[in-house]
User: Fold this.
Amino acid sequence: MRNPFLISLLDLPRQEGASMPWDAQLPAPRDFGVELIGVPEGDPLDIHLTLQSVSEGVWLSGTVHATAHGECARCLQDLEEDITETIGELVLYPERRKALEDQGDDEAHELPVIQNEHIDIEPIVRDAVVAHLPFRPLCRPDCPGLCPECGERWEDLPEDHHHDHTNPSFDALADLEAALRAAGDDK
Ligand SMILES: [Zn+2]
Ligand SMILES: [Zn+2]
Assistant:
């Protein structure tokens, strides 16, 4: 099946300064997120790009917009976040990347490259979105989280919520004290 993230450069003259717009709404690929938040597979990614020919290759710039779904790291409530990320990426002509490699640039092989007059923007869009997702998403910045005793959301609990209990470590001490006293009485 054709990769929808593949942009053909056939309509972009290879002449510095030439540019063309490229807009699409594409389904999010699998695993488009981090542990607690991401764009569900198949949900729309709105992509608006301008492709511009530069001497080294094609300069991609624009935005990607999507809605991420996740879970609050404190209270575990479902949350949604509208995300708009900017894209700015130089995609090299293969001979340019080859030239960098020949010059001893060890990282050149990781740079995005034009292949068969096409650019695969999937890794570029993925980097733009996934790299900016929070590792600890919160439903709101001051989310109070959960009561450590009962696991209920503080949000849902009355203001005077508390748990009546004796501290078990004090109980143990009291037991020990009683045992010692009993032992002493035996003498
Ligand atoms: Zn929360
Ligand atoms: Zn509680």
